[in-house]
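tool_call: predict_structure(chain=1)
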Amino acid sequence: MGQIASGVWISLALYFILMLGIGVYAYFRQQRSIEGYMLGDRGLGPAVTALSAGASDMSGWLLLGLPGYMYGSGIVSLWIAVGLTIGAFANYLLVAPRLRVYTEVTNAITLPDFFANRFHDTTHLLRMISAVVVIVFFTVYTAASLVSGGKLFENSLGLEYSLGLWVTAGVVVAYTLFGGFLAVSLTDFVQGVIMLIAMLVVPYVAFNEVGGIANGIAVAKSLDPKLFDLMNGVTVMGAVSLMAWGLGYFGQPHIIVRFMAIRSVKDIPVACGIGMSWMIVSLAGALLVGLSGIAYIHQHSMALEDPETIFLVFAGLLFHPLVSGFLLAAILAAIMSTISSQLLVVSSSLTRDVYQLFLDKTASEERQVLVGRISVVVVAVVAILLAGDKENSVLDMVSHAWAGFGASFGPLVLLGLMWKRMNWQGALAGMVVGALTVIVWVYGGFTIGGEPANKVIYSIMPGFVFSVIATVVVSLMTPAPSQKIYDEFEDMKKQLK
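tool_result:
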């Protein structure tokens, strides 16, 4: 038993050393400027852009939440995977090139920066409220990722859940604190590769253990044929609601910030090809892990109290300790890639949209970088405190934060990049309506047919729709943007040709 534990820890130790080493490399490699710390000097290549966007997107729910959903509900989970795939592709197609050009034209480093500069908002309301949305929802999102880390250390290594939180956060904070955006992106790239390998290896080995894919499916069908019903437990609206996860991509700051940092618009098609290939394989692998788990648990007469731990079960039982350590590192990679990206986005917003805007308008770039690093630590500690309850469902926590960003920022990003008549008043109305709709839909106690509203219709759907309506109506009811804003919009379109 001691040899098993030591083998796992050796793999994890090597992984931690690699992540910290990348952080040190990035510290000496990047420019000592706020754009260098927050955007890597806009110099990411297409492969790093694609895998860092994918790894930061998927988080611990890819290896824990999604396999657990497949294990408990069956192929109805495909609706989420399909929706995410469509949404991610649309994000590359519609948002990536326009945002890359527009944020450079308007000298925007953060998403609230972009909103303020795009609409020439002299009231600062857009920056203030969007910064609040970023800070609140991302702190919850980071806490969800830390829950995954705590569960990993508790279930696989026998450590206290709280210790797992601190270890996970400690390593992430170390390389994010010093290496900034470049460290986050490079570690995400490596973590994306690790996650991909894990999503190929684990379902392959697991299905071999249950007699192959055909036999595994037959066993699962014999247990509950409804597991293979695409409409199991959902209505048509429910299926559409699951697919609506894809709407969230347009408003996720930790993903679309990669589009702001890519080296050139010409690199985006290559990044799209790499990113979408990685995503499709990873999602398929996660679903197959859950499916193979149904047959494996039954054949071995085991009890699985928490479906979200099926990947951990396979990692601990089916592989050599060194490989088990690698697979646990894959989960940590998924968790850490998201946490680091989220910490940096919140840090950027606290620095640019709170500190510089209200406390020190003339702050030097060195001072801003320092404030950014302090913010990383503060947000991490708050997220650890929020993640203290290990009974939190990773998928539920992620879904609320995902919906909050998708509904409040998604319509603003899409319409702001594609509709020149949109003004700051419309943007403000859409952001507020989207965020409030999600909050009320989830926590307002409303029911549909006796079920909680969010269980019947995912909150991002009403939030996104109402946000679009509010944005369009208020924009048309208030004065049109100035000629200068129209000219900037036309310049952006010309640079895309």
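agent: The radius of gyration is 22 Å. Proceeding to next step.
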